[in-house]
Amino acid sequence: MFMRAYPLTVAASEDIIVAGSNDGKLNCWDVYQGQNLWHIDNAHKGGVTAVKLSSNVRFVVSGGAEGELRVWEIKTRDMVSNLKEHTARVHDLKLFPNDQYAISVSRDRCLLTWDLRAEKRLTAHRERHGGINCMAVASNQTTVITAGQEKTMTYWDLRMADPVRSIELDEEVHTMSLSSDDQLLATAGTGMLVKVWDVNAGAVRSQGAGHSRAVQRLSFAPDNKQIVSVGLDHAIMVWNCYT
């Protein structure tokens, strides 16, 4: 039986793009030539669901449908670490600026932080109900915002066990992005709207309609003046963000 492979998650630097796909492969492409530089077969059983490049472009961290995080050395393509704590699909992961620490969220309702050098979990936080789809990490590296299946947006302080704040939503949010100054949060999901929130007030400041199906990914531009969103309607939309 032939199964068509398609990218599920992408990470990029100035020179390369690394994509993880539903067939379990990691592929690396040259940004300028469009050439496939290398690939890793069977990076994850069931598909690669999250991927991040280190800031020094020496390694890639990937998450999979089986719930594992794996660290790959780019030069050799060897797996140098395999972190097994999640019990369900990894939906999102981030690397901290020093490349030593990572944070991941999963359908198992858990938000986990990791020391990649020591190859161990540092902290664990859990939602009461429903898996976590996405997260945003503030520049202070202790504030994290998550959202997921239970239609709740949750503010966490990684130094505290319990949530700092919870906001009820009218949709399941699939994706979110913080502005570089941590003042605005863009979210989108099953409601098909791109919403911009005031982070401190916890209120929607504006919203845009355009997608005809659920939105899967969005991101602020580096200057915070635009937001790019991608939906299951195969549309890529660019939104002006006025503050």
UniProtKB/TrEMBL annotation:
InterPro entries: Apc4-like_WD40_dom, Quinoprotein_ADH-like_sf, WD40/YVTN_repeat-like_dom_sf, WD40_repeat_CS, WD40_rpt. It comes from the Eukaryota. It is found in: Nucleus. PROSITE patterns: WD_REPEATS_1 (PS00678), WD_REPEATS_2 (PS50082), WD_REPEATS_REGION (PS50294). Its main location: nucleus. The keyword Repeat applies. SMART domains: WD40. Keywords: Nucleus, Repeat, WD repeat. WD repeats lie at residues 41-82, 83-124, 173-207, 208-243. Gene3D superfamilies: YVTN repeat-like/Quinoprotein amine dehydrogenase. GO terms for biological process: positive regulation of transcription by RNA polymerase I; rRNA processing. This is Anaphase-promoting complex subunit 4-like WD40 domain-containing protein.
